[in-house]
Design a protein that fits this description.
The chain is mainly alpha-helical. It has 7 helices and 3 strands, in the order H-H-E-E-H-H-H-H-E-H. The chain has a 3-stranded antiparallel β-sheet with strand order 2-1-3. A hairpin with a 2-residue loop joins strand 1 and strand 2 (about 55). The chain is elongated.
Length: about 170
């Protein structure tokens, strides 16, 4: 091994390029999670269903479903009642990932993304074909944002982040 020869600078340069590339790759997961969470949250506040001149957001719609007793007992009722927690779960996931708490962020990101994605997809696919009740594109956009949140969570789970205690000098 030659210390003063040409091998050492080549090795250092290769390492620096590898570290620089890895740093950009590490931002992909949190970036996807941020974009997905923002999209899902904003779309959840948009009108999901329009009847006549009244538009109802997901929160109005699920509150109405709960109050009228359409949600059966068990997990479905719990899922309908817990819907207002979705933005909180998504926000905690994004903040945790950006602060370096990847495991916590991945868990909350998967929970929020699957929750919003399933609910948005179910409402989009179960849309009635009547002129009295019109389902907007907001549930579909929520499901797409939730998909990005899940994808970002998977990327964060798969990309290894070096420890800050690792010797990088």
């Amino acid at each position: 091994m030659e210390v003063n020869g040409a091998e050492l600078p080549d090795m250092i340069a290769t390492y620096a390029v590898s570290v620089r590339w890895r740093q950009h790759w590490q931002l992909l997961g949190p970036g996807l999670m941020s974009l997905g969470a923002a999209t899902a949250i904003v779309a959840s506040f948009r009108p999901w269903v329009r009847s006549g001149t009244t538009g109802r957001s997901s929160y109005d719609l699920l509150g109405l479903v709960h109050r009228l007793g359409f949600a059966p007992e068990g997990p479905v009722r719990w899922a309908v009642r817990a819907w207002p927690l979705m933005p909180l779960l998504a926000t905690v996931a994004v903040v945790a990932v950006w602060w370096g708490w990847r495991a916590l962020g991945v868990v909350f990101g998967l929970l929020a993304g699957l929750y919003a994605g399933v609910l948005g997809a179910v409402l989009t696919s179960a849309a009635p074909d009547t002129r009295a009740l019109i389902v907007s594109r907001a549930p579909l956009v929520t499901a797409i944002g939730a998909g990005l949140l899940v994808l970002g969570s998977v990327v964060c789970a798969c990309v290894r982040v070096p420890s800050e205690h690792a010797n990088t000098s």
